[in-house]
Every structure is written in C-alpha cells, then in structure tokens.
Amino acid sequence: MFNTKHNLIISTLIFFLTLTTTQAEEPSDKPILRIETGMHTATISQIGVDAAERFLLTASDDKTLRLWDLHTGELLNIYRVPIGAGNEGKLYSGAISPDGEWVAGAGWTAEWDDKESIYLFNRTSGQLVKRLSGLEQVIMHLCFSPDGHYLGATLGGGWGVRVWDTYDWNRIFKDTHYAGDSSHWCDFDRQNRLVTTSLDGYLRLYAPTSDGFSLVTKSDALGDELPVTAVFSPTGDKIAVSFLASTNINVLEGHDLTLLYAPDTTSIDNGDLSTVAWSQDGKSLYTGVVGYGSD
Fold it and tell me: pTM for the complete prediction?
C-alpha cells in the first residue's frame, strides 16, 4: 500500500505533467509588439474574392490576413492568428467563402501542438471561431468550392490534399499518396470537382461522392515541368496550368486532363509565369510575371 507521502508525490507529479501537456498545446500569452502600418509588410502569398465581388482577402508572410473593400481599396478588417518567433504564424494561404461570411487562413501554424492548423474567422466581427487542426505539414493553399459546401487544403512535404464539409466542419476526404516537396494549389469547379497540383509532377482530378471525394485521374503528361497552379474555366471544360520556373502555360481538357493547346508565351523574357486565371466568360486567360525587375 502507498502511504500518504507517496500519494502526495504521485498527485503532484500528475498535476505538473498535466499542466505541462496543457501548456504545450496552447499559444503563449506573452505579448509580441508589432507596428501596425495599415498595409502588409511582407510578401502576399494568396488573395481571394467573394462571389459578389465585394471583398478582397490577402494572406501574407507578415502573419496577418487583411480584408479590403474591392471597390474603394479601404482596409476593412485584420485577422490575426497565434504567432511566435521565426516562421510561426506566417500565412501562405487565405480564402474567403463565396457568401463572404467565413475567412480562412493557414500556413506555418504548428508550434503549439506540433500539428498544423487552419484558422476560421467571422468576416464581420473578426472573431476567431474555429480551428481545423491535426494537419501533418505546412498548408500551402486553401480553396472554397463555388457553392461554399467544401473547403480544400493542399499541404507541403508530400502530404497531399484534405477536404472539409463546411456544414459541420468535419473532414470528409484526404489523399496522402503524393510525393515531392509541396502541393501548391487546389481549385473547385461549379460541379464541385477538385483539381490539385504537386511538385511530384502530377495533376490530380477528383469528383465528389456520397461520402467524400474520389480520384478520377492524374496526369504527368506535361513533360519535365512541375505544375504550380491549376484553375478551372468557368464552365469546367478546361483547366489552365502554370509551371515552376517557366513561362509556359498549358490548357487541358477539364475531364481527362489531356492537353488541348498551349498559348504562345515565347515573347515573355522578363520572368516566370507562376499564376494563371480565367476571365468570367472563359474567353480570356490571364497570367502574372514573377520577374527580374521589368514590367
């Protein structure tokens, strides 16, 4: 039998072990002083717009999400995740739900429990209302489906893609059969099909099922280039793809990922075409140059 002294020692150890575990899973409450400049002070990693085109959301390495009036440019709100020293709190991804009610941000957000998290805010109040936790690697990109039913996330380190049902925020799908360093992009079409890119060289196309999503096809028929962004045309019949450290753009068939054509980009000699986007009518394709100091 244990005596009173032994019981006291054991109880004390349990208390401190419990306290240590709890503290390890909570952000530090030590203040971190920062100057508010009214604008971002580091790279903007992702932007998002609501369906009614009222709001522009920006996610930045300065560890903030910022909401802007799309028509006036006025700063409307700042959303802050728990941050720490170094990379902790850098936001590589941000998305606003189509109805403009939810703001999601993620990136390097794992210091507290050694698992990455996605933070969800109420757009109007700015209140942090939910955390989607337990992710194995840095979150590279977030995407809402056009109907707002799903939130997708792609991860670094070959950890693939995850999808949540926004009605109850349960995770309903994951695919970890990825290789390479990162999956940089995800995009839904109006039928809730999902396309992702990965630095393993593959594009992957998924379709919704009764209980999640399933892989329809994946393609590496893109030569030796590594896909970075992939976006559906408004009707979902085409997918435009940009590549790492390249000026090439490919347009693929939206159901089987076969190559349809490649726009002529041979005149671009001042940088790489890392992003691509369709016009609302699907008749024009836009891209941006990550460049070497020229326009």
Answer: 0.85
